[in-house]
Amino acid sequence: MEETLSIIKPDGVGKKIIGTIFKRFEDAGLEIVNIKRLTLTTEKAGEFYYMHKDRPFYPELVKFMTSGPCVPFVIKGENAILKVRELMGATDPSEADAGTIRADFADSIDKNIIHGSDSKESAEREISFFFD
């Protein structure tokens, strides 16, 4: 069994689709094992997305992620990282497959509803960032 982290971003919380997103993961055979609801500070958002600090979108990403509450959660299951990424869809919702979370709910590449760890190493770092 593998664990990974996902975050329902402020736009997803604002659209009141937390339960809908959880259901998609559970319907795919994954288990949600830990959940938080919080509003990131600028410092914490910057720390979480530090790997993007030199990219042009970084300031807007931090601003967006601190604009309202988000819901980080841990998902457990067989091949959880890959399954979560498939269920989320491409980062750019216009390129996401029909029926994925981003294709169905996201407004743009910048406001794309959800984050998911992209590797085992990222999942470990990201889970420990939000959960002791």
Write up this protein.
The protein has 132 residues and is an alpha+beta fold. It has a single domain (2-130), classed as Nucleoside diphosphate kinase-like domain (Alpha-Beta Plaits). It has 7 helices and 4 strands. The chain has helices spanning 10-14, 18-27, 42-48, 58-65, 80-88, 101-105, 120-130, and strands at 2-8, 31-35, 71-77, 114-116. The protein has a 4-stranded antiparallel sheet with strand order 2-3-1-4. The protein is globular. The two termini are 19 Å apart.
Question: How are helices and strands ordered from N to C?
Answer: EHHEHHEHHEH
Helix content, binned percent: 40-55%
CATH fold category name: Alpha-Beta Plaits
How many β-strands, per DSSP?
Answer: 4
Task: Decide which structural class fits the backbone.
Answer: alpha+beta
CATH class: Alpha Beta
Through-space gap between termini: 19 Å
β-sheet strand percentage = 15-25%
Per CATH, the architecture is 2-Layer Sandwich
Number of DSSP helical runs: 7
Any low-confidence stretches, pLDDT <50, length ≥5? none
Strand order of the largest sheet: 2-3-1-4
Question: Main beta sheet: strand number and arrangement?
Answer: 4 strands, antiparallel
Task: State the CATH superfamily name.
Answer: Nucleoside diphosphate kinase-like domain
Shape: globular
Calculate Rg over CA atoms: 14 Å
The chain-level mean pLDDT equals 97
